[in-house]
Amino acid sequence: MTQSVPLYIDGEFCQSKSDQWIEVTNPATNQSIAQLPCATDEEMERAINSATQAFVSWKQVAVSDRARVMFKYQHLLKEHHDELAQLLSQETGKITLDAKGDVWRGIEVVEQAANIASNMMGETVENVASDIDTYSLIQPLGVCCGITPFNFPAMIPLWMFPLAIAAGNTFVLKPSEQVPLTSMRLAELFEQAGAPKGVLQVVHGGKSQVDFLLEHSAIRAVSFVGSVPVAQYIYHRGTSYNKRVQAFAGAKNHMVVMPDANKNQVISNLVGSSVGAAGQRCMAISVAVFVGSAKEWISDLQVEMAKMKPGAWNDEGAAYGPLISQQAKERVLSLIEEGKAQGAVCELDGSQCQVDGLPDGNWVGPTLFSGVTTDMSIYQQEIFGPVLVCLEVETLEEAIALINNNPYGNGTSIFTANGAAARKYQHEIQVGQVGINVPIPVPLPFFSFTGWRGSFYGDLHAYGKQAVRFYTETKTVTARWFEDDIPTGPNLSIHLR
Fold first, then answer.
1. Which GO terms describe its molecular function (predicted)?
2. What is the Cα–Cα distance from 291 to 402, expressed in whole angstroms?
3. Is 444 a domain residue?
4. Does 293 map to a domain?
5. Do 203 and 305 have their domain in common?
6. How far is it, in rounded angstroms, from Cα 392 to Cα 292?
Protein backbone atom coordinates (compact mmCIF):
# COMPACT_ATOMS: atom_id res chain seq x y z
CA MET A 1 0.00 0.00 0.00
CA THR A 2 1.34 3.46 -0.95
CA GLN A 3 2.15 5.53 2.11
CA SER A 4 0.66 8.95 2.83
CA VAL A 5 3.30 11.51 3.71
CA PRO A 6 2.45 13.28 6.98
CA LEU A 7 2.84 16.92 7.92
CA TYR A 8 4.97 17.87 10.92
CA ILE A 9 3.11 20.57 12.83
CA ASP A 10 3.45 21.67 16.45
CA GLY A 11 5.71 18.76 17.30
CA GLU A 12 3.42 16.07 15.86
CA PHE A 13 3.45 14.01 12.67
CA CYS A 14 -0.13 14.28 11.48
CA GLN A 15 -2.16 13.27 8.43
CA SER A 16 -3.43 16.14 6.33
CA LYS A 17 -7.13 16.76 5.76
CA SER A 18 -6.37 17.99 2.23
CA ASP A 19 -8.41 16.92 -0.78
CA GLN A 20 -5.45 17.66 -3.09
CA TRP A 21 -2.71 15.06 -3.34
CA ILE A 22 0.45 14.64 -5.42
CA GLU A 23 1.90 11.28 -6.42
CA VAL A 24 5.55 10.71 -5.50
CA THR A 25 7.30 8.30 -7.87
CA ASN A 26 10.57 6.40 -8.02
CA PRO A 27 12.32 7.90 -11.10
CA ALA A 28 14.03 4.60 -11.91
CA THR A 29 10.68 2.87 -12.37
CA ASN A 30 8.06 5.65 -12.36
CA GLN A 31 6.10 3.58 -9.87
CA SER A 32 4.29 5.37 -7.08
CA ILE A 33 6.01 5.26 -3.68
CA ALA A 34 3.93 7.80 -1.73
CA GLN A 35 1.02 10.22 -1.80
CA LEU A 36 1.79 13.80 -0.78
CA PRO A 37 -0.83 16.24 0.54
CA CYS A 38 -1.09 19.87 -0.45
CA ALA A 39 -1.53 21.33 3.03
CA THR A 40 -4.76 23.21 3.61
CA ASP A 41 -4.74 26.90 4.54
CA GLU A 42 -5.77 25.94 8.07
CA GLU A 43 -2.82 23.54 8.34
CA MET A 44 -0.42 26.16 6.98
CA GLU A 45 -1.73 28.70 9.47
CA ARG A 46 -1.40 26.21 12.31
CA ALA A 47 2.22 25.49 11.41
CA ILE A 48 3.15 29.17 11.28
CA ASN A 49 1.30 29.92 14.52
CA SER A 50 3.11 27.09 16.26
CA ALA A 51 6.46 28.38 15.02
CA THR A 52 5.53 31.90 16.16
CA GLN A 53 4.66 30.72 19.66
CA ALA A 54 7.76 28.52 19.90
CA PHE A 55 10.00 31.46 18.99
CA VAL A 56 9.01 33.31 22.16
CA SER A 57 10.72 30.71 24.36
CA TRP A 58 13.34 29.35 21.93
CA LYS A 59 15.03 32.73 21.45
CA GLN A 60 15.59 32.83 25.23
CA VAL A 61 17.39 29.46 25.28
CA ALA A 62 21.11 29.85 25.96
CA VAL A 63 23.20 29.70 22.79
CA SER A 64 25.24 26.86 24.30
CA ASP A 65 22.07 24.83 24.81
CA ARG A 66 20.98 25.46 21.23
CA ALA A 67 24.41 24.30 20.10
CA ARG A 68 24.04 21.09 22.13
CA VAL A 69 20.88 20.23 20.18
CA MET A 70 22.94 20.53 17.00
CA PHE A 71 25.73 18.38 18.46
CA LYS A 72 23.18 15.67 19.19
CA TYR A 73 21.59 16.12 15.77
CA GLN A 74 24.82 15.72 13.82
CA HIS A 75 25.54 12.59 15.86
CA LEU A 76 22.15 11.11 14.92
CA LEU A 77 22.60 12.06 11.26
CA LYS A 78 25.94 10.26 11.18
CA GLU A 79 24.45 7.27 12.96
CA HIS A 80 21.66 7.07 10.35
CA HIS A 81 23.79 8.16 7.40
CA ASP A 82 23.42 5.01 5.31
CA GLU A 83 19.70 4.72 6.05
CA LEU A 84 19.15 8.33 4.94
CA ALA A 85 21.17 7.73 1.79
CA GLN A 86 19.08 4.69 0.87
CA LEU A 87 15.83 6.57 1.44
CA LEU A 88 17.14 9.48 -0.59
CA SER A 89 18.14 7.13 -3.42
CA GLN A 90 14.66 5.66 -3.67
CA GLU A 91 12.96 9.00 -4.16
CA THR A 92 15.63 10.74 -6.28
CA GLY A 93 17.14 7.78 -8.14
CA LYS A 94 20.65 8.82 -7.11
CA ILE A 95 23.23 6.06 -6.98
CA THR A 96 24.49 5.18 -3.50
CA LEU A 97 27.72 7.18 -3.78
CA ASP A 98 25.91 10.38 -4.79
CA ALA A 99 23.26 9.88 -2.11
CA LYS A 100 25.86 9.43 0.62
CA GLY A 101 27.58 12.59 -0.55
CA ASP A 102 24.27 14.45 -0.41
CA VAL A 103 23.75 13.43 3.21
CA TRP A 104 27.33 14.05 4.26
CA ARG A 105 27.47 17.60 2.87
CA GLY A 106 24.37 18.36 4.91
CA ILE A 107 25.96 16.92 8.05
CA GLU A 108 28.93 19.25 7.55
CA VAL A 109 26.61 22.25 7.79
CA VAL A 110 25.01 20.89 10.97
CA GLU A 111 28.52 20.63 12.45
CA GLN A 112 28.93 24.35 11.78
CA ALA A 113 25.54 25.02 13.37
CA ALA A 114 26.93 23.40 16.51
CA ASN A 115 29.57 26.13 16.45
CA ILE A 116 26.90 28.84 16.44
CA ALA A 117 28.13 30.73 19.53
CA SER A 118 31.27 32.08 17.85
CA ASN A 119 29.18 33.31 14.91
CA MET A 120 26.73 35.14 17.17
CA MET A 121 29.36 37.41 18.69
CA GLY A 122 28.88 41.15 18.34
CA GLU A 123 31.48 43.94 18.49
CA THR A 124 32.45 46.39 21.20
CA VAL A 125 34.27 49.72 21.27
CA GLU A 126 35.00 51.20 24.68
CA ASN A 127 35.06 54.99 25.06
CA VAL A 128 33.62 55.91 21.68
CA ALA A 129 33.13 59.21 23.50
CA SER A 130 33.78 60.31 27.06
CA ASP A 131 32.49 57.52 29.36
CA ILE A 132 30.37 56.09 26.50
CA ASP A 133 30.69 52.53 25.16
CA THR A 134 29.06 51.08 22.06
CA TYR A 135 28.49 47.42 21.42
CA SER A 136 26.43 45.30 19.02
CA LEU A 137 24.25 42.29 19.71
CA ILE A 138 23.30 39.58 17.20
CA GLN A 139 19.68 38.54 17.68
CA PRO A 140 17.33 36.14 15.82
CA LEU A 141 14.70 37.34 13.37
CA GLY A 142 11.71 35.17 14.27
CA VAL A 143 9.94 32.65 12.01
CA CYS A 144 11.93 31.76 8.87
CA CYS A 145 11.03 29.39 6.05
CA GLY A 146 12.81 27.28 3.46
CA ILE A 147 11.60 26.07 0.06
CA THR A 148 13.89 23.35 -1.23
CA PRO A 149 14.42 21.54 -4.58
CA PHE A 150 14.36 17.89 -5.59
CA ASN A 151 18.03 17.39 -6.41
CA PHE A 152 19.54 17.52 -2.90
CA PRO A 153 16.79 16.52 -0.45
CA ALA A 154 19.19 16.13 2.49
CA MET A 155 21.90 18.69 1.86
CA ILE A 156 19.83 21.75 1.00
CA PRO A 157 17.28 21.53 3.85
CA LEU A 158 20.31 21.07 6.12
CA TRP A 159 21.80 24.24 4.61
CA MET A 160 18.82 26.07 6.03
CA PHE A 161 16.97 25.04 9.16
CA PRO A 162 19.87 23.96 11.44
CA LEU A 163 21.66 27.32 11.14
CA ALA A 164 18.45 29.31 11.38
CA ILE A 165 17.30 27.40 14.47
CA ALA A 166 20.73 27.41 16.10
CA ALA A 167 20.70 31.21 15.72
CA GLY A 168 17.49 31.32 17.79
CA ASN A 169 14.82 31.33 15.09
CA THR A 170 12.03 28.86 14.39
CA PHE A 171 11.55 27.39 10.94
CA VAL A 172 8.90 26.19 8.48
CA LEU A 173 10.27 23.83 5.81
CA LYS A 174 8.46 23.22 2.51
CA PRO A 175 10.45 20.49 0.72
CA SER A 176 10.07 19.64 -2.94
CA GLU A 177 6.85 17.79 -3.62
CA GLN A 178 8.90 15.32 -5.70
CA VAL A 179 11.15 14.17 -2.82
CA PRO A 180 9.45 14.65 0.57
CA LEU A 181 10.49 11.45 2.35
CA THR A 182 14.06 12.45 3.20
CA SER A 183 12.90 15.71 4.77
CA MET A 184 10.42 13.87 6.97
CA ARG A 185 13.18 11.60 8.25
CA LEU A 186 15.39 14.63 8.90
CA ALA A 187 12.55 16.07 11.00
CA GLU A 188 12.17 12.82 12.96
CA LEU A 189 15.85 12.79 13.84
CA PHE A 190 15.75 16.47 14.76
CA GLU A 191 12.97 15.76 17.22
CA GLN A 192 15.03 12.88 18.66
CA ALA A 193 17.94 15.30 19.07
CA GLY A 194 15.89 17.21 21.62
CA ALA A 195 14.53 20.04 19.51
CA PRO A 196 11.57 21.54 21.40
CA LYS A 197 8.03 21.33 20.12
CA GLY A 198 7.27 23.89 17.42
CA VAL A 199 10.83 24.89 16.60
CA LEU A 200 10.64 23.06 13.25
CA GLN A 201 7.53 22.56 11.10
CA VAL A 202 7.32 20.64 7.79
CA VAL A 203 4.49 21.37 5.34
CA HIS A 204 3.88 20.09 1.83
CA GLY A 205 2.38 21.26 -1.41
CA GLY A 206 2.95 23.35 -4.51
CA LYS A 207 2.63 26.97 -5.57
CA SER A 208 -0.38 27.77 -3.36
CA GLN A 209 1.50 26.67 -0.24
CA VAL A 210 4.59 28.61 -1.32
CA ASP A 211 2.50 31.74 -1.84
CA PHE A 212 0.98 31.28 1.61
CA LEU A 213 4.48 31.37 3.12
CA LEU A 214 5.59 34.32 1.00
CA GLU A 215 2.57 36.39 1.94
CA HIS A 216 2.18 35.54 5.63
CA SER A 217 3.09 38.44 7.90
CA ALA A 218 4.75 36.20 10.53
CA ILE A 219 7.39 34.88 8.12
CA ARG A 220 10.48 37.10 8.40
CA ALA A 221 12.92 35.43 6.01
CA VAL A 222 12.71 33.06 3.03
CA SER A 223 15.44 30.74 1.73
CA PHE A 224 14.97 29.14 -1.70
CA VAL A 225 16.93 26.95 -4.11
CA GLY A 226 15.56 26.10 -7.56
CA SER A 227 15.19 27.15 -11.17
CA VAL A 228 15.73 30.68 -12.49
CA PRO A 229 12.07 31.56 -13.18
CA VAL A 230 10.94 30.33 -9.77
CA ALA A 231 13.86 32.02 -7.98
CA GLN A 232 12.94 35.31 -9.62
CA TYR A 233 9.31 34.83 -8.59
CA ILE A 234 10.22 33.93 -5.00
CA TYR A 235 12.55 36.91 -4.68
CA HIS A 236 10.20 39.51 -6.13
CA ARG A 237 7.09 38.24 -4.38
CA GLY A 238 8.82 37.70 -1.06
CA THR A 239 10.47 41.11 -1.01
CA SER A 240 7.20 42.75 -2.07
CA TYR A 241 5.82 41.45 1.24
CA ASN A 242 8.81 43.00 3.03
CA LYS A 243 10.64 39.75 3.71
CA ARG A 244 14.33 39.05 3.66
CA VAL A 245 14.92 36.64 0.74
CA GLN A 246 17.83 34.58 -0.54
CA ALA A 247 16.96 32.80 -3.79
CA PHE A 248 19.53 30.51 -5.41
CA ALA A 249 18.80 29.99 -9.10
CA GLY A 250 20.17 28.15 -12.13
CA ALA A 251 23.63 28.05 -13.61
CA LYS A 252 25.75 27.44 -16.66
CA ASN A 253 29.10 26.47 -15.22
CA HIS A 254 32.19 26.57 -17.43
CA MET A 255 35.47 24.71 -17.11
CA VAL A 256 38.37 26.38 -18.92
CA VAL A 257 40.96 23.89 -20.18
CA MET A 258 44.40 25.32 -20.86
CA PRO A 259 46.76 23.39 -23.17
CA ASP A 260 49.34 23.07 -20.38
CA ALA A 261 46.90 21.28 -18.05
CA ASN A 262 47.26 17.64 -17.04
CA LYS A 263 45.27 15.90 -19.77
CA ASN A 264 44.23 12.86 -17.74
CA GLN A 265 43.08 15.01 -14.84
CA VAL A 266 41.09 17.26 -17.18
CA ILE A 267 39.24 14.40 -18.85
CA SER A 268 38.54 12.53 -15.62
CA ASN A 269 37.21 15.65 -13.90
CA LEU A 270 35.17 16.78 -16.89
CA VAL A 271 33.44 13.42 -17.11
CA GLY A 272 32.58 13.24 -13.41
CA SER A 273 31.50 16.85 -13.04
CA SER A 274 29.25 16.83 -16.11
CA VAL A 275 27.37 13.52 -15.79
CA GLY A 276 27.59 12.93 -12.04
CA ALA A 277 24.15 13.01 -10.38
CA ALA A 278 22.80 12.89 -13.96
CA GLY A 279 23.86 16.51 -14.31
CA GLN A 280 21.07 17.54 -11.94
CA ARG A 281 23.07 19.90 -9.75
CA CYS A 282 23.51 23.65 -9.95
CA MET A 283 27.30 23.28 -9.72
CA ALA A 284 27.64 20.70 -12.50
CA ILE A 285 30.11 21.57 -15.25
CA SER A 286 27.96 21.80 -18.37
CA VAL A 287 30.36 23.78 -20.61
CA ALA A 288 33.98 22.96 -21.43
CA VAL A 289 35.99 25.82 -22.96
CA PHE A 290 39.08 24.44 -24.69
CA VAL A 291 41.87 26.97 -25.18
CA GLY A 292 44.19 26.57 -28.18
CA SER A 293 45.50 23.06 -28.80
CA ALA A 294 43.53 21.63 -25.84
CA LYS A 295 40.66 21.10 -28.30
CA GLU A 296 42.53 18.03 -29.54
CA TRP A 297 41.43 16.27 -26.33
CA ILE A 298 37.73 16.24 -27.24
CA SER A 299 38.01 12.84 -28.96
CA ASP A 300 39.58 11.35 -25.82
CA LEU A 301 36.86 12.97 -23.73
CA GLN A 302 34.24 11.28 -25.90
CA VAL A 303 35.81 7.87 -25.30
CA GLU A 304 35.76 8.30 -21.52
CA MET A 305 32.25 9.74 -21.37
CA ALA A 306 30.95 6.77 -23.35
CA LYS A 307 32.01 4.50 -20.49
CA MET A 308 29.61 6.22 -18.08
CA LYS A 309 26.43 4.15 -17.79
CA PRO A 310 23.34 5.12 -15.79
CA GLY A 311 21.56 2.62 -13.60
CA ALA A 312 19.64 1.88 -10.42
CA TRP A 313 20.74 3.32 -7.10
CA ASN A 314 22.13 -0.02 -5.88
CA ASP A 315 23.89 -0.93 -9.14
CA GLU A 316 27.58 -0.75 -8.29
CA GLY A 317 28.41 -0.43 -11.98
CA ALA A 318 26.23 2.63 -12.51
CA ALA A 319 27.88 6.03 -12.85
CA TYR A 320 24.67 7.94 -12.13
CA GLY A 321 20.92 7.51 -11.85
CA PRO A 322 17.83 8.63 -13.78
CA LEU A 323 16.44 12.10 -14.22
CA ILE A 324 13.86 13.04 -11.64
CA SER A 325 10.76 12.84 -13.88
CA GLN A 326 9.50 12.03 -17.33
CA GLN A 327 8.96 15.75 -17.88
CA ALA A 328 12.60 16.45 -17.04
CA LYS A 329 13.71 13.70 -19.44
CA GLU A 330 11.56 15.06 -22.26
CA ARG A 331 13.01 18.54 -21.76
CA VAL A 332 16.60 17.26 -21.92
CA LEU A 333 15.86 15.18 -25.03
CA SER A 334 14.26 18.20 -26.66
CA LEU A 335 17.37 20.31 -26.04
CA ILE A 336 19.60 17.55 -27.44
CA GLU A 337 17.56 17.59 -30.64
CA GLU A 338 17.71 21.38 -30.79
CA GLY A 339 21.49 21.20 -30.49
CA LYS A 340 21.70 18.87 -33.47
CA ALA A 341 19.30 21.01 -35.50
CA GLN A 342 21.25 24.18 -34.75
CA GLY A 343 24.48 22.71 -36.13
CA ALA A 344 26.37 21.43 -33.08
CA VAL A 345 28.27 18.17 -33.59
CA CYS A 346 26.83 15.42 -31.38
CA GLU A 347 29.97 13.44 -30.54
CA LEU A 348 28.05 11.18 -28.13
CA ASP A 349 24.27 10.82 -28.12
CA GLY A 350 22.53 9.46 -25.02
CA SER A 351 18.97 10.17 -26.10
CA GLN A 352 18.15 6.50 -26.82
CA CYS A 353 19.53 5.18 -23.53
CA GLN A 354 17.94 2.10 -21.96
CA VAL A 355 18.75 0.31 -18.72
CA ASP A 356 18.23 -3.45 -18.55
CA GLY A 357 15.36 -4.44 -16.30
CA LEU A 358 14.16 -0.84 -15.85
CA PRO A 359 12.44 0.06 -19.12
CA ASP A 360 10.25 2.78 -17.60
CA GLY A 361 12.97 4.82 -15.91
CA ASN A 362 13.87 8.38 -16.87
CA TRP A 363 17.16 7.49 -18.47
CA VAL A 364 19.42 9.74 -20.54
CA GLY A 365 22.89 8.56 -21.47
CA PRO A 366 25.99 10.77 -21.41
CA THR A 367 25.84 13.25 -24.27
CA LEU A 368 28.68 15.34 -25.70
CA PHE A 369 28.52 18.21 -28.19
CA SER A 370 31.40 19.95 -29.95
CA GLY A 371 31.32 22.90 -32.33
CA VAL A 372 28.93 24.71 -30.02
CA THR A 373 28.43 28.48 -30.32
CA THR A 374 27.00 30.90 -27.81
CA ASP A 375 23.80 31.49 -29.79
CA MET A 376 22.71 27.84 -29.52
CA SER A 377 20.01 26.84 -27.04
CA ILE A 378 22.20 24.07 -25.59
CA TYR A 379 24.63 26.79 -24.53
CA GLN A 380 22.14 29.41 -23.44
CA GLN A 381 19.88 27.19 -21.32
CA GLU A 382 20.62 25.20 -18.20
CA ILE A 383 20.03 21.66 -19.50
CA PHE A 384 20.11 19.96 -16.07
CA GLY A 385 21.00 16.60 -17.54
CA PRO A 386 24.13 14.54 -18.36
CA VAL A 387 25.02 16.77 -21.31
CA LEU A 388 28.36 18.53 -21.85
CA VAL A 389 28.87 21.16 -24.56
CA CYS A 390 32.31 22.13 -25.84
CA LEU A 391 33.44 25.53 -27.12
CA GLU A 392 36.82 26.43 -28.54
CA VAL A 393 38.79 29.69 -28.14
CA GLU A 394 42.38 30.69 -28.87
CA THR A 395 43.31 32.58 -25.70
CA LEU A 396 42.57 32.76 -22.00
CA GLU A 397 41.34 36.33 -22.50
CA GLU A 398 38.70 35.06 -24.94
CA ALA A 399 37.61 32.40 -22.46
CA ILE A 400 37.23 34.95 -19.67
CA ALA A 401 35.24 37.31 -21.91
CA LEU A 402 32.97 34.47 -23.03
CA ILE A 403 32.16 33.40 -19.46
CA ASN A 404 31.69 36.96 -18.20
CA ASN A 405 29.23 37.49 -21.02
CA ASN A 406 27.08 34.60 -19.79
CA PRO A 407 24.19 35.69 -17.55
CA TYR A 408 24.95 33.12 -14.83
CA GLY A 409 27.66 33.23 -12.19
CA ASN A 410 27.39 30.22 -9.91
CA GLY A 411 30.63 28.29 -10.38
CA THR A 412 33.54 27.93 -12.76
CA SER A 413 36.94 26.28 -12.88
CA ILE A 414 40.21 26.43 -14.73
CA PHE A 415 42.63 23.58 -15.27
CA THR A 416 46.19 24.77 -15.83
CA ALA A 417 49.78 24.24 -14.67
CA ASN A 418 50.48 27.98 -14.85
CA GLY A 419 50.07 30.00 -11.65
CA ALA A 420 49.90 33.32 -13.45
CA ALA A 421 47.07 32.09 -15.69
CA ALA A 422 45.20 30.78 -12.65
CA ARG A 423 45.61 34.09 -10.80
CA LYS A 424 44.47 36.12 -13.80
CA TYR A 425 41.43 33.88 -14.11
CA GLN A 426 40.38 34.03 -10.46
CA HIS A 427 40.85 37.81 -10.44
CA GLU A 428 39.01 38.69 -13.64
CA ILE A 429 36.22 36.11 -13.79
CA GLN A 430 32.80 37.40 -12.70
CA VAL A 431 31.63 34.19 -11.05
CA GLY A 432 31.10 33.66 -7.35
CA GLN A 433 32.83 30.29 -6.86
CA VAL A 434 36.08 29.50 -8.65
CA GLY A 435 37.99 26.24 -8.79
CA ILE A 436 41.65 25.98 -9.77
CA ASN A 437 42.26 22.40 -10.88
CA VAL A 438 39.08 21.61 -8.95
CA PRO A 439 36.00 20.90 -11.12
CA ILE A 440 33.12 21.68 -8.73
CA PRO A 441 34.27 24.36 -6.27
CA VAL A 442 31.56 24.06 -3.63
CA PRO A 443 33.06 25.56 -0.47
CA LEU A 444 32.99 23.81 2.87
CA PRO A 445 30.43 25.20 5.34
CA PHE A 446 32.78 27.50 7.27
CA PHE A 447 32.76 29.55 4.06
CA SER A 448 29.54 30.50 2.26
CA PHE A 449 27.98 29.31 -1.01
CA THR A 450 28.48 32.46 -3.07
CA GLY A 451 26.82 32.35 -6.48
CA TRP A 452 26.69 35.65 -8.40
CA ARG A 453 24.65 37.45 -11.04
CA GLY A 454 21.74 35.49 -12.55
CA SER A 455 22.45 32.53 -10.28
CA PHE A 456 21.46 34.34 -7.09
CA TYR A 457 18.88 36.88 -5.97
CA GLY A 458 19.53 38.52 -2.64
CA ASP A 459 22.44 39.80 -0.60
CA LEU A 460 23.53 37.20 1.97
CA HIS A 461 24.34 33.66 0.83
CA ALA A 462 23.84 30.14 2.19
CA TYR A 463 25.67 28.63 5.17
CA GLY A 464 28.83 30.01 6.74
CA LYS A 465 28.92 33.44 8.37
CA GLN A 466 26.70 34.99 5.70
CA ALA A 467 23.85 32.60 6.55
CA VAL A 468 24.06 33.52 10.23
CA ARG A 469 23.78 37.19 9.24
CA PHE A 470 20.85 36.36 6.98
CA TYR A 471 18.93 34.75 9.83
CA THR A 472 19.75 37.46 12.40
CA GLU A 473 19.49 41.18 13.07
CA THR A 474 22.17 43.41 14.56
CA LYS A 475 21.21 45.60 17.51
CA THR A 476 23.64 48.37 18.46
CA VAL A 477 23.69 49.64 22.05
CA THR A 478 25.30 52.89 23.16
CA ALA A 479 25.65 53.12 26.96
CA ARG A 480 26.78 55.82 29.34
CA TRP A 481 27.25 55.43 33.10
CA PHE A 482 28.09 58.28 35.44
CA GLU A 483 30.78 57.74 38.06
CA ASP A 484 29.03 60.21 40.35
CA ASP A 485 26.19 57.68 40.68
CA ILE A 486 28.41 55.00 42.26
CA PRO A 487 27.26 54.54 45.89
CA THR A 488 29.83 55.36 48.57
CA GLY A 489 29.98 55.36 52.34
CA PRO A 490 30.76 53.08 55.29
CA ASN A 491 27.34 51.40 55.30
CA LEU A 492 27.49 50.36 51.63
CA SER A 493 26.89 46.67 51.09
CA ILE A 494 26.67 44.88 47.79
CA HIS A 495 24.64 41.72 47.57
CA LEU A 496 25.32 39.32 44.71
CA ARG A 497 22.59 36.91 43.83
1. methylmalonate-semialdehyde dehydrogenase (acylating, NAD) activity
2. 12
3. no
4. yes
5. no
6. 7
pLDDT of residue 257: 98
Burial status of residue 442 (CB atoms within 10 A of its CB: 0-12, 13-18, 19 or more): middle
For 157, residues 6+ apart whose C-beta sits below 8 A from its C-beta are 106, 146, 148, 173, 175, 182, 183, 186
Average pLDDT, the chain: 94
CA 5 to chain centre: 23
Q: Name the stretches of the chain with pLDDT < 50.
A: 496-497
d(CA 296, CA 298): 6
Do 195 and 57 belong to one domain? yes
Q: How many domains does the chain have?
A: 2
Q: Chain-centre distance of CA 250, in angstroms? A: 11
SS3 427: helix
Contact 109, 466 (CB under 8 A): no
The answer to whether the beta carbons of residues 302 and 368 sit under 8 Å apart is yes
Kindly state whether residues 201 and 335 are assigned to the same domain. Answer: no
Which of 282, 346, 353, 390 does the annotation list as catalytic?
282
Task: Quote the pLDDT of residue 497.
Answer: 47
User: Could you read off the pLDDT of 448-471 as tens digits, one per residue?
Assistant: 888 999 999 999 899 889 999 999
182 and 285 part of one domain: no
pLDDT in tens, 325-354: 999 999 999 999 999 999 999 999 999 999
DSSP result, 222-241: EEEES-HHHHHHHHHHHHHT
Residue numbers of the domain that contains 67: 3-250+451-479
Q: Is the pTM of this model over 0.85?
A: yes
- Concerning whether 282 is annotated as a catalytic residue, the answer is yes
Residue 495: per-residue pLDDT: 54
Domain membership of residue 466 (yes or no) is yes
